[in-house]
């Protein structure tokens, strides 16, 4: 809870920094504040506290995901430093990002459906503005408009599902709903099950699972690259944490209602996302479909719904976030004059900037699930958990789609190592060099010591 208060305080500070003439110190204060929030999360571990009339619950699950959200945000601010430096209204944009993070933390720790809705809206409204923040680009405006329209539509599904669930159980508190559903399993009205399925559809949009993914490629491509990186990491972590919390903690006793639709979603997500990614030449669009595909693997772990699924999902998201931030850092460096980066832009990157090439290589190999990188161990744990729970057929499909993923990731690697470079040597700042080096170290460490992350939630 203290971490959430710090993040909200940083957001308010960003708003007044323009008036108080603190702009030059803004990024340093934000980074220091986020680091302090991580310390507060660590100090709260091992506790379980309720806040705001039991509407927020901070236990090891929510604290672990909160910590992951904040650490990823620190890396993101580090990567996006020049994005803020070059903007005349950097205080407004940093405030929007910080309020998005606050919404993400609420989504990971809600104990009441009203707080889930509040967290989603705080996160989404800020993102609608950030997606369209590249005002000189029609693609950015289009991305914001599409995101707003489709996000509002999906929120309608979610709200209707909450309403029907409340009508059947008489409560918005997920613990009370879980108790009621468990005690009255055979007496629940039909509209309760309709509410569960509507909530499944609404949250599937937030995690961009197929067939609720249509917004993601266009929004990812049209938004500024740094905002795309933010959406594919911090926002995805929060959405998956919320998805897990509502269905695993609240609706687990009626899993027969939503397990079959979820299996269909997993199959479609794995097949459609990975096959479509093969045909993309825009790297941002390829990474968008890659991000959608990874949702399929995460849902495969979630469907197992046993004591090990939370730790497995947390580890997978940690590995995915580090790799994605690294990949988008390379993409951000290559991007110039707001051009859309195609695979050809990576031609000869090893000769132009070896550190950037190595960082991108490790990121792509991890996303592809190549050992001994953390992406491999994440997929291995997901597959092992699913087989243990009887979903061998889905695992076989996931392995085949993972091999398809190897193909389109290696298209970029071939360009990096075997194609002649376009242009002259590529220079990057010392700050970004340090960031890439640190991200490479993180990838190696969490690949060598996976249990250290899994045991955090346990």
What does this structure look like?
With 458 residues, this protein is mainly alpha-helical. The protein has one domain. Helices cover 78% and strands 1% of the residues. The chain contains 20 helices and two strands. It has helices at 2-20, 26-44, 60-79, 81-85, 90-109, 113-131, 138-169, 174-183, 190-206, 215-222, 225-250, 255-278, 283-304, 309-334, 349-352, 354-368, 374-388, 392-418, 430-448, 450-457, and strands at residues 49-51, 56-58. The protein has a two-stranded antiparallel sheet with strand order 1-2. Strand 1 (49-51) and strand 2 (56-58) form a beta hairpin. Helix 5 (90-109) runs parallel beside helix 11 (225-250). The longest helix has 32 residues, at 138-169. The two termini are 20 Å apart.
Instruction: Summarize model confidence as the mean pLDDT.
Output: 89
Strand order of the largest sheet: 1-2
**What general form does the structure show?**
globular
Largest sheet: 2 strands, antiparallel
The topology string of helices and strands comes to: HHEEHHHHHHHHHHHHHHHHHH
Annotation field: number of helices: 20
Span between termini: 20 Å
Give the tally of structural domains. 1
Quickly describe the structure:
78% of the residues lie in helices and 1% in strands. By secondary structure, it is mainly α. The mean pLDDT is 89.
Topology at a glance:
Blueprint: H1 2-20, H2 26-44, E1 49-51, E2 56-58, H3 60-79, H4 81-85, H5 90-109, H6 113-131, H7 138-169, H8 174-183, H9 190-206, H10 215-222, H11 225-250, H12 255-278, H13 283-304, H14 309-334, H15 349-352, H16 354-368, H17 374-388, H18 392-418, H19 430-448, H20 450-457
Antiparallel strand pairs: 1-2
